Amino acid sequence: MLKVENVTKYYGDFKAVDNLSFEVKPGEIFGLLGVNGAGKTTTFRMIMGLLDMTEGSITLDGKKIDYSVTDKIGFLTEERSLLTKLTVKEQAIYYGVLKGMKEEQIIKRLKELLEKFEIPEYLDKKIKELSKGNQQKVQFITAIINNPKLLILDEPFSGLDPFNVELFKKEIVEMSKAGSMIIFSSHRMEHVELFCKKLVVLMNGKSVLAGELKKIKQQYRKKNILIKGEIEPDKIKKIKGVVSVINKADEYEVKIESEDIVEDVFKYVSKCNNITKFSVEEPSLNEIFVAKVGESYEK
Fold this sequence. Notes:
The chain is built from ten helices and 14 strands.
């Protein structure tokens, strides 16, 4: 288990991380979210032992993270960190040796992963000859070459088309099922919702939202009602507690302040013609994120 306990980090007088705590258990995919400058990168670097914390503790399976533990960690950075003049094989060997692997072990694992990501022919190609999407594949492969116990993914789908996003998703889920602890960070909230059952949202280094995603959604009072049929949006907007009515292709999305408003909206809709859908939905993580981060800006 990864434990981050009451961690604070100062750069001079600037507090980059403020009393942060969370746990990631084996097999969990945990979301660490926040706007740019929220403290995510500093947190990642402290977890990997690249930065010392000012206060608190970080442990992996009960041990402080140092060079004896970092071989069990994989990290995919948001920025490209590939040596473009090397071949894919040379790049993998470089990272694998740093993680304590033997060369024959690295090449065997590399060939398996290249097959999985459908680029086996790139083994001896130079990084600079690859497209941005395929460079991202190679970067991901080098991050997981050592079958890490803890994997940190910072914007892993950057530069990928939908087909390759699916390949990445499949591998991430397989790793979690095999017991890896995964920390997933992305500005794309729909990607976070695909994987993460638990999360922390950072703002100015401090947690402003934390817990199980399911419970967070249930506790958030605002809901959405999806309606298909012949309605008059202006009449729904006049119902007390209705925040907005948005026309989305062949349906309307009605945002309401709380579940208490559902009955009033239903009373109106029940008098309308050709209603084929009336569905009360939880808000998206993106809506909750924007609301919570907005509240923090205002404080």
